[in-house]
Amino acid sequence: MATITLTNVQMRYCNLVKPYEPKVGAPKYTMQFYLEPGSKELKDIETGLEAAAKDAFGPEYKAKLIKAKNGQGSYSLLPPEKNTDEMADGRVAVKPSAFADRPLPLFDGDGLPTKDASLFYPGAFVNVQLRFNAYQPPYSEAPPQVKLDLVAVRFSKHGEKIQGRRPSITAEDLEALGVKMDVTGDDLI
Q1: What is the pLDDT of residues 69-121, one digit of tens each?
Q2: CATH number of the domain to which 48 belongs
Q3: What is the phi/psi pair of residue 3, to 5°?
Q4: If DSSP codes are grouped into helix, strand and coil, which group holds residue 98?
Q5: Number of domain units in the chain
Q6: Residue-wise burial string across 29-68, b where 16 or more C-beta atoms lie within 10 A, e elsewhere
């Protein structure tokens, strides 16, 4: 399976030190970053994606291949109209993952192994090694996929922390905006 290393990508969200535990399915290490259309990194991913798909699924792969990935951590071989992860501004979201059945290798800026969570946060820049893993899901209606597996992540540099949640709006905030709240908890029963 081919690998690719991307340098200085800014994480938008991440679960690298402690795996994400979904309600259904196995725990996974996950991250997300955006790539600009036409960037070298996106072209490198597309090249690796096509090579893995061609090796695994033969010469017919290209008619089905899309550039953006689905929300399940895989690039799906679906028609282009099924593209759901292209951002409104044209950037492409990349969401590699790795099952948490073994530790994900994490490295500090000096290349030494670490589990220091303060290095891996939304906004930090990292170098990430990814593996193209082509497979046919076990359920029959699913299309063949090329999954981007996380292989290893190395901290590169600090960036401005990206907040993942909207701040809470208080009654005072609404009042300052001229919005009057005349609903009580009893009104909601």
Answers
A1: 444 444 444 333 333 355 556 677 788 889 889 999 999 999 999 999 999 99
A2: 2.40.50.140
A3: -125, 165
A4: strand
A5: 1
A6: bbbbbbbeeeeebbeebeebbbebbeebbeeebeebbbbb
Q: Is 140 exposed, middle or buried (0-12, 13-18, 19+ CB in 10 A)?
A: exposed
Cross-strand partners of 173: none
**Across the chain, where does the E strand assignment appear?**
3-10, 13-20, 28-35, 74-76, 92-94, 97-99, 106-107, 125-135, 145-157
- Which residue segment(s) compose the domain that 121 sits in? 3-188
Please tell me the chain's helix, strand, coil percentages from 3-state DSSP, rounded to the nearest 5.
20, 30, 45
pTM of the model: 0.72
Question: Which residues have C-beta within 8 Å of that of residue 53, sequence separation ≥ 6?
Answer: 61, 62, 65, 77, 134, 144, 146
